[in-house]
Amino acid sequence: MTKLRTEALRKSFGDLEVLKGLDLEVTEGEVVVIIGPSGSGKSTFLRCMNLLEEVNEGRVIVDDVDLTDPKQDINKIRQNIGMVFQQFNLFPHLNVMENITMAPKQLKDLSGDDARTLGTRLLDSVGMSDKADAYPSSLSGGQKQRVAIARALAMEPDIMLFDEPTSALDPEMVGEVLAVMKKLAQDGMTMVVVTHEMGFAREMADRVIFMDEGLIVEKGTPEQLFGDPQNERTRDFLDKIL
Amino acid sequence: MSTKRKRQSIYGLLFLAIMLFTGTLSPVRGQAEEDTYLIATDVTFAPFEFQNEEGEYVGIDVELLAAIAEDQGFDYELAPMNFSAGLQALEANQVDGMIAAMGITPEREESFNFSDPYFESGPVLAVRDDNAEITSYDDLDGKTLAVKVGTTGAEFAAELAEDYDIAISQFEDSATMYEDVLAGHSDGAIEDYPVMAYAIQQGLDLRFPEEPELGDEYGFAVNQGQNPELLEMFNAGLANVLEDGTYDEIVERYLGDSSEVAPRSGFFGLFQANFGDLMTGLRRTLILTLVAFAISLVAGTIIGLFSATPSKVLNVIANIYVTILRGIPLIVLAFFMYFTVPQLFGIQISAFTAGIITLSLNTTAYIAEQVRGGLAAVDKGQLEAARSLGLPYAVAMRKVVLPQAVKIMIPSLINQFVITLKDTSILSVIGIVELTQTGRIIIARSYQSGAMWIIVGFIYLVIITLLTKLSNRVERRLMRND
Ligand SMILES: Nc1ncnc2c1ncn2[C@@H]1O[C@H](COP(=O)(O)OP(=O)(O)OP(=O)(O)O)[C@@H](O)[C@H]1O
Ligand SMILES: [Mg+2]
Predict the structure, then answer these.
(1) How would you classify the pairing of strands A57-62 and A2-13?
(2) What are A24's strand-pairing partners?
(3) Where are the domains of chain B?
(4) Is the distance from the beta carbon of residue A106 to the nearest atom of ligand 1 less than 6 Å?
(5) What is the pLDDT of residue B366?
(6) Whether B40 contacts B102, CB under 8 Å
(7) Class of domain B3-28+271-481
(8) How far apart are CA B444 and CA B200, in angstroms?
């Protein structure tokens, strides 16, 4: 069943057209990895999927609901789409537990106890239960990103968007974050991941998308895309990074 | 501190502010006190009006008015303010009458109705005791004369300036004018004879090189066409107190040879003798500051948020507000609130309320700018992360962006608080007796401006240092988490 779909998606910043008509379909439980050179529009594409970035043309459809329809309550829909950022964006004035429970408390009227139970369960799942009362400034990058993932899961979304979740990490911390993401994927989460971690893409992706200059140049299974790229530009890109 | 406790203390502060503010809103002349007349007088014009060491208003005008009011059976309340401010207040119907050793001149009669004259006096030139150079008007060429804005003395100085090459310095009150001569900035001062004579009798080192000029008659004034019954009562009462000798008693008390000379106290004596008044002034300064700052904190945050929203309309509103309010000097804004607004809208505003509004409008503009800057300094990723969780814009701002912006803003807010506290001194121009005005009043009766300004400056310094220390401690508390 289709979980998320974009149709002829276009996006410009001023005169600069960044996305030039993108069609993508993500089925339930699928892990889609987006790769491509810097500036090709990967982040912008991902941010259009929860309308953090306004869309100029085309549609974004999640669970048969058109997000670009102004009549839709975008706040309601976003609760169903978790997002993890390259720079973590944890709330520095709140401790780890509060970072996670703030949104459910505000939006689901969760009691303090219920919120704490939820927070503890999520922290457990990312291996951070001992840091519940710590403030973000005292955490390592890997720990921050694991908390950020737990926070994104707090509204119990069925889709998770990841924008280069390991790019800001020291190499020795990449593994712990990828492990959390793998577990999520194995549990059946629908995921769209922008990443340069080709190992993760090979192992976990159901499909890999190669983007360049605002277009989807090629898509396929990891075996097809990495093993037998059809497009010249894909081959160039893969040659450079592998 | 938990966020809940923090919020509670903010609400507490707000509540306090509103209490104080509404307290000040109770108008000086409510409908219930309709037959209590508000009478303007000068703050610093001994022997006609001045505060004694007990803080009571005394002087020839004050006692004459009291005697007449008693004779005629009307109630009144004195509103001491600078002379020129009093004239404007009378024109704006902010007060019902004015008694302030005011000469009856044709120009003034165009705006006001005067009572029968109750005192005759003329301007006189005074120079420093040790000034041997000036012995007559002819020695005034190339000299500077101090005068008080809007007085008969000022008019006489202007006449002199037609014949001699004289520069004129304008002052708002007598004490400052005398000090200007004593300090050697001006060579002489022109002032009504009885006022100057009284000051010299009280120990001021000035002398008269010339005889006083010919008469100028003092009258009680009401605004043109307003309160005719008050004027009638004043005339009737004046006739009675002249008749029964009360008038002579009053004048004798201030100008006769028997009037007692105030001892000149030393620095600490001056401080001790006026401690009560100074603390009352300081309390007003603090109330003005706290109330205005609390209001500005709320209003400034709202306007600051306006400029941060994606809404172009709100951006423009915030921009216009800040541009206008930052572009008007505080003193002009104070005059506008106290004199222009009542005339435009036919309402009455007490000086204290006008002062609070003035200070709040001004401080709001600066805080709004600080809020805007603070919000801009919060990483954009914070709002995005909050919105991506499904939090509506307002909630995301309130729970995520604003708390971080506040932390960034704390040093500049502390700074703004100190500025607002110091700015309260400007409100003395509309007659609010805060710390600075208290200093002026004390100088008017003690003639010790040198020591007094040191004392007043010191009090400001101590209070501001204490408050800064306190807020730095609060700041460190809040910063502990990062
Ligand atoms: N807010 C913005 N305003 C103007 N231009 C933007 C904005 N955001 C992105 N761009 C431009 O859009 C293009 C695509 O940017 P995007 O961040 O989507 O690329 P990316 O594929 O994620 O690159 P990277 O691998 O470096 O993260 C770039 O040229 C970028 O400069
Ligand atoms: Mg990117």
Answers:
(1) antiparallel
(2) A6
(3) 3-28+271-481, 37-117+218-261, 123-214
(4) no
(5) 96
(6) no
(7) mainly alpha
(8) 12
**Per-residue pLDDT tens digits for B405-414:** 988 898 899 8
Kindly report the average pLDDT of chain B as a whole number: 86
Q: Among the atoms of ligand 1, which is closest to the Cα of residue A196? A: 25
Residue A219 one-letter amino acid: K
Q: Where are the beta strands (DSSP E) in A36-180?
A: 57-62, 65-66, 81-84, 159-163
Q: Single out the residue of B216, B178, B146 nearest to residue B44, CA to CA.
A: B178
Q: Do domains B3-28+271-481 and B37-117+218-261 have the same CATH topology?
A: no
Asked whether the beta carbons of A89 and B382 are under 8 A apart, the reply is yes
Q: Which of B390, B404, B481 sits opposite A103 (nearest CB)?
A: B390
Lookup: tokens for A120: 């503890």
The one-letter amino acid at B341: V
Say yes or no: A72 contacts chain B, CB-CB below 8 A: no
Write down the CATH number for the domain with range B37-117+218-261: 3.40.190.10
Instruction: Count the alpha carbons within 13 Å of A121 in the hemisphere toward its beta carbon.
Output: 11
Task: Give the separation between CA B159 and CA B149, rounded to whole angstroms.
Answer: 15
Q: Which amino acid is at B312?
A: K
| Average pLDDT score over residue span B79-96 | 90
Distance of CA A163 from the midpoint of ligand 2 (Å): 7
Measured from the Cβ of residue B376, the count of other Cβ atoms closer than 10 Å reads 13
Architecture of domain B123-214: 3-Layer(aba) Sandwich (3.40)
Share of residues in chain B with pLDDT > 70 (%)? 90
B360-384 confidence digits (pLDDT tens) = 999 999 999 999 999 999 999 999 9
Distance CA B439, CA B292 (A): 22
> Are B230 and B222 within 8 A, CB to CB?
yes
Rounded-to-integer distance, Cα B385 and Cα A93, Å: 14
Of A52, A83, A107, the CB nearest to B391: A107
Pairing of strands A215-220, B112-114: unpaired
Q: What is the mean pLDDT of residues B57-67?
A: 94
How close B352 gets to chain A, by Cα (Å)? 40
- B71 compared with B201, residue with greater pLDDT: B71
Task: For A162, list phi and psi in degrees, rounded to 5.
Answer: -120, 125
- Identity (one letter) of the amino acid at A111? S
